[in-house]
Amino acid sequence: MIEVQIDDDAWLEALPEVKKLGFAAADAALSFLPPEMGEDLGLVVFLTDDETVRDLNERFRGKDKPTNVLSFPSPPGNPEGHIGDIALAYGVCAREAEEQNKPLAAHLQHLVVHGVLHLVGYDHETDEEADKMEGLERIILEGLGVPDPYAAGAREA
Questions:
Q1: What are the binding residues?
Q2: May I ask which residue range the UniProt record assigns to the signal sequence (predicted)?
């Protein structure tokens, strides 16, 4: 089960279809997971503000600043199939979309896909990991009709 929770109305004001966009991106990412991960996996997409993400980032990562997306994987062996939660900061995401000349909807979907992949163990700490993760992101986003977020060569998340 995918749940999209909106904590900051700025998301709805900017993107009235934000719940649908978040759900579609999370669902598309989950559909690319290997079958051994199981079926009926669940997660929460939490759409909030910069201050809430800043607080989460500080408490869980020791970084006192907002960021675009945070992923919080569930502990291994979760019997309910809940793989975790992702949180997105409206202000950071909106600024990045504007700076990168991207539609906010496309940036949101990219960050949701990116966050879901982090929940299931993908990372981008090394060039090899980044290439693998970005390749999968491109495939998933293409299926959603979202342009390649890495076309200019910048790593954003």
A1: 114, 118, 124
A2: none
Dihedral of the CA atoms 136, 138, 144, 145 (nearest 10)? -160
Question: Contact, 68 vs 27, CB < 8 A?
Answer: no
- Dist. CA 47–CA 147, nearest whole Å: 22
The H or E element containing residue 115 is: helix 104-119
User: In whole angstroms, what is the distance from residue 11 CA to residue 91 CA?
Assistant: 9
pLDDT tens profile 26-71? 999 998 876 666 667 889 999 999 999 999 999 999 999 999 999 9
| Mean pLDDT, rounded, of the chain | 91
Backbone φ, ψ for residue 36 (5° rounding): -65, -15
User: pLDDT tens, 115-134?
Assistant: 999 998 888 888 899 899 99
Q: What is the model's pLDDT at position 155?
A: 46
Please, which residues have CB within 8 angstroms of residue 85's CB and are 6 or more apart in sequence?
A: 43, 44, 45, 46, 71, 72
What single letter denotes the amino acid at residue 141? L
**Fold designation for 2-144:** Collagenase (Catalytic Domain) (3.40.390)
| Residue-range domain boundaries for the chain | 2-144
Q: How many whole angstroms separate alpha carbon 115 and alpha carbon 73?
A: 10
Query: Residues annotated in the binding site for Zn(2+), as ranges?
Result: 114, 118, 124
